[in-house]
Amino acid sequence: MRMNTLFEKALAIEPPWFIKEIRFDEGQKQLDIFIDFRRGATFVYEDEESGSKGEFKVYDTVNKIWRHLNFFEHECRLHCRTPRVKTDEGKVRLITPPWAGLNSGFTLLFEALILQLCSHMPVHDVGRIIGETDAKLWRLLESYTERGRKETDWSEVNTVGMDETSRAKGHEYITLFVDMGEKRTLHVAEGKGSETVKEFAGELAKRDIEPTQVKQVSCDMSPAFIKGVRENLPQAEITFDKFHILKVINDAVDAVRKAEVKENPLLKGEKYLVLKNRSNLSTKQRETLASLEVPKLNLKTIRALHIRENFQEIYNACSLSGFVILLKKWYWWATHSRLEPMRKAAHTIKRHWEGVINWKRFQINNGLLEGLNSLIQAAKAKARGYRTARNFKIIVYLLTGKLNFRKINPHFVPV
Q1: CA distance linking residue 52 with residue 86, whole number of Å
Q2: How far apart (Å, rounded) are the C-alpha atoms in residues 100 and 82?
Q3: CA gyration radius for the chain?
Q4: Same domain, 285 and 218
Q5: What angle is formed at CA 59 by the lines to CA 53 and CA 64, rounded to 5 degrees?
Q6: I need a surface site. Which of 73, 105, 253, 286 has the fewest CB within 10 A?
Q7: Residue among 413, 412, 399 at smallest CA distance from 183
Q8: Domain containing 214 — which CATH number?
Q9: Do residues 15 and 137 share a domain?
Q10: pLDDT, tens digit, for every residue of 371-390?
Q11: Contact between residue 381 and residue 289 where contact means Cβ atoms under 8 Å apart
Q12: Do 129 and 76 belong to one domain?
């Protein structure tokens, strides 16, 4: 089998295309493959604007180059005398060869490799390994994530989780909108205000989906989120997730500790002793906590800790009615505790009563959002941050959007 035929099979090049020449430069560590088409060949072209489709003769040609997968340590490039055709409307259009990637300059196979690498390491590191600029890789990733999102079906979305995550220092945030059923990020909005929900509702409208399709939203007790949901997702019942509710109570416990430590040195340096769950304490920490729980000490911090632990037990209730009964008892205890931070926390929960109860009613677990957030922050840490909100969004969609890139690039194999 001659060399050209061997490479045609390896690159899946079929008629009317054929390899005309192969140049191998050992000194430059470069392999150049020149592709042409048979004389008299015709090509099918479909005009996306007009919708017309037909088979046309070649009008003229343009020389194009694509970066391909390396041949061992040698950089490989495909050169092609690429035909242009003249459509029935008189427009001259370039034919896209079957190996051409989404972005000009890369083959589909090379783009599949880039997607795999960028899913596991920072873009800058990938660029250094393959010898391409960061800007070119970001454009490629943006093209794939945008196309992948357009291909995503939102028709069954009815339960949405919302959560903000930091993009950079200086209180710059993005808000994630997650399909709780399919466990995927649907939309990323800059900021963490009510306008982010309006933006998400706009994305629904672009897909001809009524905002009333969203029946449940899980979020924290941010007034901006609540306002945004009520104004833009009118049929959605709000559930306040357990994690954020416990944060409110934990902050109250810490406030009690900070006030008491000034007058009681026993609590100095014991912040995490009272903020951690008992199951997460070391043996030594449990012994220290037991010594602080001695009744004669009557520490306010310990009383606040017991109130928090009692609240956590409410989530183990077997039924909705049991959950409500225990919540009411806890509220009375917290508001009569004579611990001002705990009273404030209890009143906060009272103001959001239905949303707290909805956690038991709908059993929405926001652990998914926390998991996605952790994945995103880990990627941000490895990359040492992202210069723009655009780049951060691209990475969020790449890692958590569950985008089906195989519809765009059949060579992509999800891990």
Answers
A1: 12
A2: 11
A3: 30
A4: no
A5: 95
A6: 73
A7: 399
A8: 3.30.420.10
A9: yes
A10: 888 888 888 888 777 888 89
A11: no
A12: yes
Over residues 244-286, the pLDDT tens digits come to 899 999 999 999 999 998 888 888 888 888 888 999 989 998 9
Same domain (yes/no): 113, 173: no
In whole angstroms, what is the distance from residue 196 CA to residue 189 CA?
A: 6
Cα angle: 239, vertex 179, 220; to 5 degrees: 30
Task: State which of 125, 147, 169 marks the end of a domain.
Answer: 147
The alpha carbon torsion through 334, 339, 340, 342 (nearest 10 deg) reads -40
* Range(s) of the domain holding residue 335: 242-362
Six-digit token pair at 360?
């038991």
């000490």: which residue's tokens?
297
- Taking alpha carbons only, the member of 25, 27, 26, 23 closest to residue 4 is 23
Structure tokens that stand for 36 in this block: 């042409």
Q: Are residues 156 and 283 in the same domain?
A: no
Query: How far is Cα 81 from Cα 77, in angstroms, rounded to an integer?
Result: 13
pLDDT score recorded for residue 187: 96
Give CA 414 to chain center in angstroms: 16
| 109 vs 168: CA distance, rounded Å | 34
pTM of the model: 0.87
Cα dihedral 71, 77, 80, 82 sign: positive
Closest CA to 63 of 32, 24, 109, 26: 32
